[in-house]
Amino acid sequence: MMGGSVRQRYPSIMFDASSAKPAREEPQGHAADRLRGVQLTSILKTTPVMMFGNVMNAIIILGMSSGEAFSPWALIWLLGLSYIVLVSIRAWSRFQRRAPLVSASSRATAHAVRSAFILGAWWGLAILTFYPSSDGDAKSVIAVIAMGMICGGGFALSALKRALQAFIIPLFVGSVVALGISQGTNDYFLLALLLGFTFIVYRASCARGELLQENLEGHQKLAEQSSIIELLLREFEEGTSDWIWQTGHDGQLVRGGDRFSQIFGRGTDRLIPNGDQTFAGQGLDLSPIAQPMLERTPFRETIIEIPSPQGAAWIAMTGKPIFGHDGAFTGYRGVASDITATTHAERRIAYLAHHDSLTGLANRSWFAEEIDRICASPPPQGPTSSLLYLDLDNFKLINDRNGHLTGDQLLRQVAARLLRIVEPGDMVARIGGDEFAIVAHSAPDTASADSLATAILACFATPFSLGAELANVGCSVGIAFPGLDGANPDDLLRNADLALYEAKAAGKNTFCFFESEMAQRLRDRHRLEYDLRCAVERNELVLNYQPIVDSRTRQTLGFEALVRWEHPLHGRVQPDHFIPLAEQTGAICGIGAWVLREACRNAASWGDHLTVAVNVSVDQFRHGTIMTDVEDALASSGLAADRLELEITESLFIDDPEAVVTVLHRLRSLGVRIALDDFGTGYSSLSYLRKFPFDKLKIDRSFVNAIKDDRIAHGILETILALGRVLDLSVTAEGVEDAEQIDILTRMTCNQFQGYYFSRPMEAADLGAYLLRDFCATAETSRASCVALATT
């Protein structure tokens, strides 16, 4: 109906039917441009019908007005109408050949409005020309044609309100004028009918145009929302391991195929399984989802494993079938998740639940499960396996000296050697720290277990390579048999541990089988531990004193306090038996505090020239109680601080020498004297002798015992005495038992002696008699004076 230039626009996002994603992007037009495009498209679609109506109406009018048919005015009008029809048909033809009009310029709509006005005015002029000169029947036909043209124009141009007005107004005005000037009764009736009909058509056409515009805006909003949702989905899928997939009814993927390709590492175009339940022959197993998809039923969180040269991957798929309004199956839609990382983590957790993370051996939990299984159903014919408990010898020394990384390296090498020794069906477990256990199904009897333990000890004979150095590490093994040495897991493990303890007590680097006597010894030990904790409260501990003698004058300078335990059942328990037990159980701090208080209390009643030496434990320093113990003992007894001498051993400096030296300086500030006991048998580092000025060195009895026959021991003693002179330290020789030893030590200028030659350790009640004898033996007095003193 109308021509003019219109520009074509393309939508900003066009969807590819095969992948449901944007195919390309074009510049977006304004909303008004898109509305004008729709309006012009609506008008152009009705152009052929409208032009056909124009031609038919023209023929009817010219036929009814036969007298005017070939008048010049009629000919001119007909030619003009023909031109309008040809231009409109041409515009419609161009519209048909081109892509759909997506948008149009305001110039195109202005041209359409002008074209509508021209056509309406041309028909208004025809009505005004032909109606007055026609007879009654012809007038009625022309009036009907006028109203029909108004109705047809309203229908065709309702999409563009301005074009509708431009067409109807001149046609309506021409018709009203033509009916008005005729002044016939029928003319007035037709005029009233025309007025009412035009009003109705105009209002209906405007409403139709508004509805069209609202529909367009609704479609536009839906398109924008769909675009936003699509963009959000794309961002979501790119940023997470989840994505949406969809297939057609034939199983072809229409969405999500690129993500499947990324996971699978190869093309995947078909999701519904073929007869061999694989992805289009790609060898990917679809059996977990095959049956539901073939039956067109939903499935949820179904896991599919994907093998690849880079390692297995896993995806979890959820999907449900899609059916159209008619109930026809249209495909599947769902969500897929790449759960490879999660699956690896779960498998790692499951692995670590039963394996040691450092060595890869079975851990304590898995080992306990195996022991529970063995003990739950013991075979009637006897043990079918043996349990070997292993503990490394000297591991702590290497770990402390070289660091935990080196210690971990050593543990891994130990695990590797043990795995090479045992049979495939045996379990090697790391219980914790440097403790290992073997459940040896291949060694169910004593002979085979003996052979296995011997092989284990032999494998430790070869040094371990720890970077730039070699480390010699031994191993102690305790062996027990399930059922025979324990009917339940607790008894079995305890007895194997007892056998291990026995192996360590036997000198380490050996193995022991469990024996029932070990359990009795353990019970005795536990009872002794309990009694030892109560010994102080029950007043079962007593102090003996052994004199320390000046090497030149043979005068007693003081006494060393030695603790003894008078057990109500076992009698006197020697220190070398219960002191290590006290150190292991933590009771040594309480015993050490009691010894300090009791020794200071007794010494306060002696002469002011006599000192008391007390051995203090490493634990008293480690737990920070030594200062409080000494201060309390001095305060409660009233003993002068310079009469108290604390004897410490070289092992005190192993863990934290700087902290120990600090505490020793604090003790020295009180006036207490410090002696280094058992010098030469322990840590033997001279650096702490420079950092802290000791008052005395005490030579261990092992050197004194060997002084007569051992040239090396003789040389060591000379060196220690020379060191004492250089450092201005008093040197005491322990364990002096005969005159020959005294003679040698005197020639070496040893300062003080202590040993059985002078006196065995004695109780506090016997010290008075000893001091009296000592005084009489050393003082230049008469026998009568001594007798008088004794009587006094």
UniProtKB/TrEMBL annotation:
Taxonomy, superkingdom: Bacteria
Classification via Pfam families: EAL, GGDEF
Transmembrane stretches, start-end: 43-64, 70-92, 112-132, 138-157, 164-182
Domain GGDEF, residue spans: 383-516
InterPro entries reported in the protein's UniProt record: Biofilm_reg_signaling, EAL_dom, EAL_sf, GGDEF_dom, Nucleotide_cyclase, PAS-like_dom_sf, Rev_trsase/Diguanyl_cyclase
Domain EAL: 525-775
Keyword line: Membrane, Transmembrane, Transmembrane helix
Membrane recorded as keyword: yes
PANTHER family tied to this protein: BIOFILM ARCHITECTURE MAINTENANCE PROTEIN MBAA (PTHR44757:SF2), DIGUANYLATE CYCLASE DGCP (PTHR44757)
Protein name (record): Putative sensory box/GGDEF family protein
